[in-house]
Amino acid sequence: GDVSVTSSGAISTTGNSGTGIRAYGGTPGNVAVTSTGAISTQGNYARGIRVLGGNGTITSAGDISTLGKEASGIHGVTIGTLTIDSDGSISTAGAESSGIYASTDAGATIGSTGDIATAGDSAFGIFGYAKTGAIEITSAGDIATKGTSSGVISATALAGGITIESNGGLV
């Protein structure tokens, strides 16, 4: 079914898998998360915002910081379309902890105006993957990554187009 989460306060978690906001929807359903508060997590697999479902929408205006392995700031996985709009800054420290991570069967649109900093191996500033649809990424903030096999922006669309527009500094 459909799931909608709205959060305006600050969120802080400690411990493995202690995700700040986690929203799961059924495969034919829609999952929407709107967050305006700051989110801080510490622990492996402790993502700032995580959405799983059919179609997903994530809107985040607050700053997000994570510390731990596979602890992305914003993490969306859908079988339908996925839209991510992030206006706050995102910082991650940990292997495979991307600032924004989007994996979808049907295509993703990712917009980010805040700065993104990652410190960990295989941690991308923005990572987008689509099996059948297009990937569109627009970034206005600075993106800095540190770590082996890390990158600023990574986009893969197996059967769709890729559009990337970045107006910030890339390190």
Describe the structure in brief:
By secondary structure, the protein is mainly β. 0% of the residues lie in helices and 53% in strands.
Tell me the overall shape: globular
Major β-sheet profile = 7 strands, parallel
Uncertain runs with pLDDT below 50, 5 residues or more? none
Helix content: under 10%
Percent strand: over 45%
Task: Please explain how this structure is put together.
The protein has 171 residues and is mostly beta strands. The chain contains no helices and 19 strands. It has strands at 3-7, 11-14, 21-24, 30-35, 39-42, 49-53, 55-60, 64-67, 74-78, 82-86, 90-93, 100-104, 108-112, 116-119, 126-130, 135-139, 143-146, 153-157, 162-166. The strands form three sheets. The chain has a seven-stranded parallel β-sheet, with no helix packed on it. A six-stranded parallel β-sheet has the order 2-5-8-11-14-17, with no helix packed on it. It has a six-stranded parallel β-sheet with strand order 3-6-9-12-15-18, with no helix packed on it. The model has no long low-confidence stretch (mean pLDDT 96).
